[in-house]
Design a protein that fits this description.
Distance between the termini: 32 Å
Structural class: alpha+beta
Number of domains: 2
Strand content: 15-25%
Shape: elongated
Radius of gyration: 27 Å
Strand order of the largest sheet: 4-7-6-9-10-12
Length: about 300
Amino acid sequence: MKRCAALCAGVGMLAVLAGCSGTPEETPVASSPSTIGTTSAPAPAASVPPAGPLGSAAYQAELTKLEQSLAGPLRTLTRVRTAEGLTEAMTTLADSLDAASSQLADLTVTRRLTAVHEVLQDSLGSAAETLSNSDRTEANARCGGVAYTSQKVQRQLRADLSGATVPLDRLGLKFGGTLPDPGPEPKPVRPSNGAIVIRSGPTGTGRLKITNGTANDVAVSIVTDGKPPAKPHVMMYIQAGKAATISRIGGAYHIYFKSGADWSPTRRQFGEDCSFQKFEQAFGRNESWQVNLEPTLGGNAKTTEVEAY
């Protein structure tokens, strides 16, 4: 039985509209302290710095000590299993990087090593600051997956320290060998507008036209009554500012939708800035509707936030 209805959304809600069925001489130079602020953390190496100035061999020994002190926090970063665990691992690693930067500032090196020595201090401090300021990392881990988000953090860490590890390597000094390497970042894949991501179960004559009036891409899920949103009857991808229609919907259902950026076709999830919502209204068998995913003045198509799926 076909049914027609008219719904409009209120402010802060989403609208449902009308619907119808090398080595030179080495000269001592005192290093300058790191300009990056530090936080309290266990000393990464011996508490008393060696007498300077340090040449290449002695400096390499200090770098090896620092790297050994960072190995534990780096391993933890790669083994986290929860969003909260990822945040905690990042905070611990940031403290350790800050402590390593401070330890380097206490060393005196030869002129040949001055430039790379100071660059390494600053790089460690900058990397620590980046880890400390990632306010959205935990939220992104909830929507994009902990392992996926952790790998992004690891890539950023390698990038932040590459300005120091590369010139150190040119001087025959090694640092950064314990940095995790998750491999290259996957190339972004944006599905075409209206692409069916999932379809399962029996078909019917239900029809739903969705207009995405928001600034973000969305994945709209048709979820059969009694089923969880992670197991939709149909999931369709709709690009920002475009519309698409889902046909052959079988049975009564609810509408869920998630939005964000950095879509992963294998995980069927956005990796950043995610939002998850559900229309409170239920939709009947073999009905036709038009839905506008945009806040509209004076409407009544209320939505609620839901857990990540």
